[in-house]
Write a structure and sequence with these properties.
Layout (H helix, E strand, L loop, with lengths): L2 H10 L4 H12 L17 H8 L1 H13 L3 E5 L2 E5 L3 H17 L18 E3 L2 E3 L6 E2 L1 H18 L2 H16 L12 H11 L6 H4 L1
Length: 207
Amino acid sequence: MDHQIILDLLKQCRARPAITCIVGEYLSLPDHNSSGKGMVAGGALSPLIGALYLMPLDKLMKDLQGSLGVRYQRYMDDFVIFAPTRHKLRKAIKQMYGVLDNLKVHVHPKKRFIGPTRKGFDFLGYWLEPDKPLTPSPVSLSRLIERSHQLHEQTADLHRLREYVCRWHQWHHGGLRGLTARTSSFIWAWQYVTKALRLNLAPEIIR
């Protein structure tokens, strides 16, 4: 992220000078070479600054909602754009790239999907399809198995592994009552992990 762009956005939001000063100092912490780019990974202010950075894109999409009929949802740096026709989507994408170029950021080529929603798509770890409940996306399931494998190799502790799968299951259903698939139960997640790791467990452990 470009530091000057962040500071300019704060001014546009009429942030107090003290806030702008704090953010400026925060941005300079890891910037030992004075490149004017980058930010502390996992820092307390990083999520807020990340949300601020794409506000110009939010404004563009709000304007296009009226002119092109697009729908847009964003969470941090993940966003989706819906349009009623392919022609209108192309127009929206062209203007989107113009905003991103001005912000000096790019769309990751491997995390981009353009196509009809009826085929389904991955967003925020969920697989979305019209008129169907939410299910874990293939990427989300792959990360579940990868992390479970690492945890099991490190400790070989089934209790810790089960706790991790339980937390993952709670995340998957958190705040989405009635929207997730009933088949995505904890038992299903636990059996999915143990099968992937080729663990032969007694029935009482599986339950």
